[in-house]
Write a structure and sequence with these properties.
The protein has 68 residues and is mainly α. The chain has a single domain, classed as Non-ribosomal Peptide Synthetase Peptidyl Carrier Protein, Chain A (Orthogonal Bundle). Helices cover 74% and strands 0% of the residues. The longest helix has 36 residues. The radius of gyration is 11 Å and the shape is globular. The two termini are 20 Å apart.
Amino acid sequence: MISNEEKIQVLKEHFELLLEDKGEYTATREIRKFLAWYVKGMPNAHIFKEKINTISSRQSFYDIFELN
């Protein structure tokens, strides 16, 4: 079974690939679709899910993970 730390690492790598491919504006909007899937079953998942629609930049994406 994959650990929560591994899930977050894969999510961050996914986001970085989106940034490289599509730029910050599009990447931050597209990662919203995937964030809930990545954090499902994790402690504080509800906090991540509440913040999904506030992601509007690379920094706001990384700010969410300061909660862990």
